[in-house]
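[User] At your convenience, examine this fold.
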Amino acid sequence: MRAFSNYDSVSEYSEVNFKLPAGAYEIEIIRAEEQNGANNSCALCLLFDISEGEYKAFFKNKFDSDRKSFPGKAKYKGVLRVWYPNGGEYAESNEKRLKTTLERIKKSNNLNIDFSKEWDGKALKGCKVGMIFQEQEYDYEGRQGMSTQPYGVITLEALKEGKFTLPKPKYLKGSSASQPSAGFYDEVSADDGLPF
């Protein structure tokens, strides 16, 4: 077999498995901020990582590994975007999703914040809450497979007591494995276009 010249200087892939199983985990919010999207849309963007158990620091470790393998192209994947209501087709479901997320964070951390008034995202930094992750089928640049994505938050109490239901995998439209899937808070369909 022919050798290549820089064999000794090439780094190896990590033996750490960067596939997060679908399930529920305790997460810690690293940063929370408002982000603007297309068509005057806006989202509460929660940057987080898993804070307990076998997969603690999963997203930081994956990001660090990706930065070595893909310098300048790595993206931090521990992100949940909860869209603000801005009228249109999903206004009511966005209201419910945002309020549910904030109230579950508030309850899990005994926060004294009135979310009906203006508040600073810094108030959520360091907060812990339960998060459910769902398997989702993807088709990206001709490659297909399954990935695990944030699905929604639950209180720490519900997480510790096992009072939650894991969602079925979400398949692409037209996939041979495609099945109907209910939305996390039962107000949006599986093809709602939201990123979680």
